[in-house]
Amino acid sequence: MPLIGSRTKPVAFIDLAALHAPLQDRLDAAWRDILAGSAFIGGSAVDDFEQRWADYCGTDHCVGVANGTDALELVLSALHIGPGDEVLVPANTFVATAEAVLTVGATPVFVDVDPGSLLITAPAIAAAITPATRAVMVVHLYGQIPDMDSITAVADAAGIEVVEDAAQAHGATFDGRRAGSFGAAATFSFYPGKNLGALGDGGAVVTNDRGLADEVRTLANHGRGTHLLHTHRGRNSRLDGLQAAALSIKLEHLDRWNAHRRLVHQQYVERLGSSVSLLQTLPGSEPVHHLEVIRVDERDRLREELAGLGIQTGIHYALPCHKHPAFAEFDVRPLPVAEAVANRQLSLPMHPTLTAEAVKAVADTVLALL
Ligand SMILES: Cc1ncc(COP(=O)(O)O)c(C=O)c1O
User: Fold this and answer.
1) Which atom of ligand 1 is nearest to the CA of 96?
2) Which residues line ligand 1 (CB under 6 A)?
3) Which of 102, 191, 237, 291 to mutate to test the pocket of ligand 1 (most atoms within 8 A of CB)?
4) Does 195 share its domain with 323?
5) Measured from the CA of 69, which atom of ligand 1 is nearest?
6) Cα distance between residue 293 and residue 105, in whole Å
7) How far apart are CA 317 and CA 73, in angstroms?
8) How confident is residue 184, by pLDDT bands cut at 50, 70 and 90?
9) Do both 240 and 332 map to the same domain?
10) CA 346 centroid distance within chain
11) Residue 3 counted as domain residue
């Protein structure tokens, strides 16, 4: 065990510089090509990445957009969800999931999560469905896909759409199928810290529904039906060529990076599993460990002491969505699991360049400070 009071080697929560360093030459070359061709918006780098990402997810279509929040909003708009409609949202998620529901004028209805995985469940969805429910946002939070068989069965029986928020689950599988291939549509964020991250903002919608893909593309491009004719009330949300080029290069490494994340998780399980509560892996699900979330008492003290020893951590999330002032009007009923977990969650360093030595130091330090 490390000597408490002495600093271990600092451990970063995430290390993008280390991730990108071996790719520097290829990124430089790709960016030079884009500069030479001036294809900054649209163009072959975007088309190419969209094709690669659809293929990777196992879907027919991909539309690159400006970020993951826009992707969610565009899907809801393309599904014609709006005022008077209810959309189910897990209470334990990043606020963007609920934000998108509000932006289209619909009502977010928050539902509780499973205590083991902290993900939405089919029974919770079934219990929250009303005649006004149009869709459920299934968030593959922390990199894990919940039981899509039972969720899809409940949604189909009720005639509501399943929208996957796969912002944290690039490459995760359930029953061997990749995130993005289950719902009416799925959305991704390529925020730099995601498992597949751009060098700035980026996002995508994937779907097997050609009509939906076309509508998302139209809405994201000022509602253009043809170049000079605006058939829809749209907006501007496009993926840049520079970002698409970087994403195509990084995609070649995604599976290897996810495999490393799995090893890191395994090491955390071995060292911490008997002492702290880790996220449970669900049957049939193969997570990509976007975040390594543990649950501990005195979370804030532990976080501060780890910081003092040079170990960075994060909190995902400090409050369930419905407890944020911005969503206060939708705080209608108790959601005990999400509410109880919020002040106990702590995210440990997790990234594809984390060494076994660093994971050991983090885990041993956590144990010593408990
Ligand atoms: C679960 C979830 N949904 C949506 C988003 C929004 O993505 P972006 O930041 O690209 O808008 C994020 C990103 O943080 C996320 O984690």
Assistant:
1) 4
2) 67-69, 93-94, 96-97, 139, 165, 167-168, 189, 191, 201, 203
3) 191
4) no
5) 11
6) 32
7) 21
8) very high
9) no
10) 17
11) no
